[in-house]
Structure formats: C-alpha cells, structure tokens
Amino acid sequence: MSQRDQLLKVVEQDVHDDLTGFALLHEWMGRLQVALMAREIVTITEANGHIVALMDAASARARRRSRVLEVFRLGTDTRAMDSLIGLYEPVRRGHVDQAWKTLIASVERCRDLNERNGKLLAMHGEIFQQLARQDPAQVYSPSL
C-alpha cells in the first residue's frame, strides 16, 4: 500500500472514529445538562471526565487530519477537506463525503449543547454570587 493510500485510510478511519466519538460526546453532554439542572455533583464530575477524554481524542484526530492535509499540500480551510475527499476512489469518496457531512452536523449539535450547558453554569454562578452578597441572616433564616 502506498503512503498516499495509507494516509487516506487513516483519515477515513479517523472520520468514522469521530462519528462514534461525537455521538458519545453528545450523549455525555446531555447527561451533563441533566446533572447541571439537578445539581448532581458526582454525575457532573463523571460527565466532565468523559467529555474531556472524548475531546482529547477528537483533537488528536483533528491534528492528524491537519498533518495529512499538509502532506498533500491542500491547506487547512474547509475546502481543504473537500479536496482531500476528492482524492478517494469514487466508491469510497461517497462514503467518506457522507461521513464527513454527518460529522459536521454532529459537531454543530455538540456545540449547541455546549452553549446551553455554559448558560446553565453561568446561571448557577449568578445565583451563587447573589447568595454571597446577601446578609447571611437572611439567607439562612426562614422567610415569614
């Protein structure tokens, strides 16, 4: 197998691994959202651990894709990946192209969920700041 074919095979596998990884990431981000709303610290910690590991793996695959794009001198913008996909034989090209488009949609869904989770965290932070500014006697005494 030529170096070109090996690199294309690595990229194809990475795209498929990213599809799996981002599906898991979406699942864990959903769990994190539920845990944030319920203020379940143990579940939040567990979800964050999984999210960090999944993001680290996705980052490693993205760096590897960037190196392959450099080897083929295709650049690093969004068109570069389209050019790389164009190097596959027609049958594989269709599969890789579809997987890549699905991956982009998965990334967008994860970004949206991450934004919502960030807003929940910001809301929690605001609540804690408000509580910290109040007179302790008012915070811990029953209201009448």
Account of the protein in words:
This protein has 144 residues and is mostly helical. The protein has a single domain (3-135), classed as Up-down Bundle (Methane Monooxygenase Hydroxylase, Chain G, domain 1). It has 5 helices and no strands. The chain has helices at 3-38, 41-71, 78-85, 90-133, 136-140. The model has no long low-confidence stretch (mean pLDDT 91). Required for the efficient initiation of filament assembly. Keywords: Bacterial flagellum biogenesis, Cell projection, Cilium, Flagellum. Pfam families: FlgN (PF05130). This is Flagella synthesis protein FlgN. Belongs to the FlgN family.
Break the fold down into its secondary structure elements and pairings.
Layout: H1 3-38, H2 41-71, H3 78-85, H4 90-133, H5 136-140
Helix pairs in contact: 1-2, 1-4
Which structural category fits the helices and strands? Answer: mainly alpha
Overall pLDDT, averaged?
91
Which percent bin holds the helix content?
over 70%
Q: Low-confidence parts, pLDDT < 50 over ≥5 residues?
A: none
The N- and C-terminal alpha carbons lie at a distance of 79 Å
Largest sheet: none
Helical segment count: 5
CATH topology: Methane Monooxygenase Hydroxylase, Chain G, domain 1
Protein name: Flagella synthesis protein FlgN
Pfam family, one: FlgN
Keywords: Bacterial flagellum biogenesis, Cell projection, Cilium, Flagellum
Organism: Pseudomonas deceptionensis
